[in-house]
Design brief:
Blueprint (H helix, E strand, L loop, with lengths): L1 H12 L8 H5 L3 H4 L5 H15 L14 H10 L8 H11 L8 H11 L6 H28 L14 H27 L3 H17 L42 H27 L4 H28 L10 H9 L18 H9 L3 H21 L5 H11 L2
Helix pairs in contact: 1-5, 1-6, 4-7, 4-16, 5-9, 7-8, 7-11, 7-16, 8-9, 8-11, 10-11, 11-12, 11-13, 12-15, 13-14, 13-15, 15-16
């Protein structure tokens, strides 16, 4: 049934799996290819991880496709095929989950849970495992719902008349995102754990606050702030549940990029990892280690994703990605290319990319990845030397 529904949805949005052309591959240097491991290698690691947790997490964030509610929405989705609405690109990312677009958060949470399973009493083991599975699933559902909501178009009132396709697509995006978020919150409520609900709610707060942080264009897409080289440029991740620190962040590449990434799901992944340890009745110290592990792994994956998308000449890249922020910091005069814009489509991405490649942005992004990947490895190693931990380290290495 699941495979049938997924095939139906793929035909509905008329999407094809993404494959990299030979011409594109030949344009990559050997150094750049280090951040593009073979997809077959990544798939092998994922399959090995799924064997350990005993759960087909590849479709964990797609379980909702089986519901009658989503099936009805999928029928309406046919009406907006060819509209170029962002929801079509979102559907492609969610359905095909191209390498490193949506990292396997749920699988990592379950592997982390498995690493401490032997410490859980035999009487509670099955109950805790089921709760951790629900936590892993609802964390991915929240991430996906938020991702879909971010694809809404801001259509000014004067342009809404006669723009029925975009308005209808916005309604579908709202309904899809709301359905996932409501379902996830219902699963969280069924866990009947106020402390866990509080942890996840702080991550939801961060997701919401992130949508209002920093300068943005008319479509609410973030744009970089003016570089300020006189500000400190390090960001300490706190384990408490207070709002994230925003003072003296904008204009400092590492601080701005880190905060944006934490807002955009970093703390959600961290709280998911922390919650798994909480359900397993681990110590507060181990909960905090799990949170820091999740945050640093998310930051490492984001650095890889930023670099891959920046080096790919076929697509637009995020103007607040690590290479761009590092490039603007190195050569502040480049900020004139992204300042005072109402729409990111006004930017000359080809010229901006060429100018950034003449800075040390790529090297600094690689160092940023290495820093967070190393920290993630060190934190996960604190959970012992077992098959689950070794598999997580292999996933970090092959990300």
């Amino acid at each position: 049934m699941s495979y049938t529904m997924i095939r139906l949805l793929r035909r509905t949005v008329m999407l094809k799996p993404h494959t990299r052309s030979e011409s594109t591959m030949t344009n990559l240097t050997q150094e750049e290819y280090v951040f593009r491991p073979p997809i077959a290698q990544w798939s092998k690691v994922i399959k090995e991880a799924e064997k350990i947790v005993g759960y087909p997490t590849s479709f964990m964030n797609l379980r909702w496709l089986l519901s009658d509610e989503f099936a009805n929405l999928a029928l309406h989705l046919r009406k907006i095929v060819g509209s170029n609405h962002p929801i079509m690109k979102t559907a492609k990312t969610v359905l095909y989950n191209e390498h490193n677009n949506l990292q396997p958060w749920g699988l990592i949470i379950l592997l982390l849970s498995k690493s401490v399973a032997s410490k859980t009493t035999l009487l509670d083991a099955n109950h805790v495992a089921e709760q951790q599975r629900m936590l892993a699933e609802l964390t991915e559902m929240i991430r996906t719902g938020h991702y879909i909501h971010r694809g809404l178009l801001n259509i000014p009132p004067e342009e809404r008349k006669g723009n029925n396709d975009s308005l209808f697509a916005n309604k579908i995006a709202i309904l899809l995102g709301d359905y996932l978020l409501v379902t996830a919150n219902g699963m969280l409520a069924r866990l009947r754990n106020q402390d866990l609900s509080y942890l996840i709610s702080t991550a939801l707060r961060d997701l919401s606050e992130g949508e209002f942080f920093g300068p943005r264009d008319e479509q609410n897409i973030p744009i970089p702030s003016i570089p300020n080289q006189n500000k400190p440029d390090d960001f300490r991740i706190r384990c408490d549940t207070l709002p994230l620190e925003v003072k003296d962040v904008l204009g400092s590449p590492v601080r701005e990029w880190t905060l944006r990434t934490l807002y955009n799901g970093g703390t959600l992944f961290g709280r998911g990892c922390q919650g798994a340890m909480f359900l397993a009745k681990q110590s507060v110290e181990e909960e905090q280690r799990a949170f820091l592990f999740g945050c640093h792994l998310c930051l490492a994956w984001q650095a890889v994703s930023d670099l891959q998308k920046f080096m790919d000449t076929k697509d637009m890249f995020s103007l607040v990605s690590a290479p761009v922020l590092f490039g603007l910091s190195h050569s502040p005069h480049l900020h004139t290319q992204v300042s005072n814009i109402k729409n990111i489509n006004e930017v000359n991405y080809h010229k901006l990319k060429e100018d950034i490649l003449n800075t040390n942005a790529v090297e600094r992004t690689k160092l940023l990845y290495s820093e967070h990947a190393d920290k993630a490895k060190r934190y996960v190693e604190l959970f012992g030397d077992n098959e689950s931990v070794r598999t997580i380290k292999s996933m970090i290495k092959n990300s």
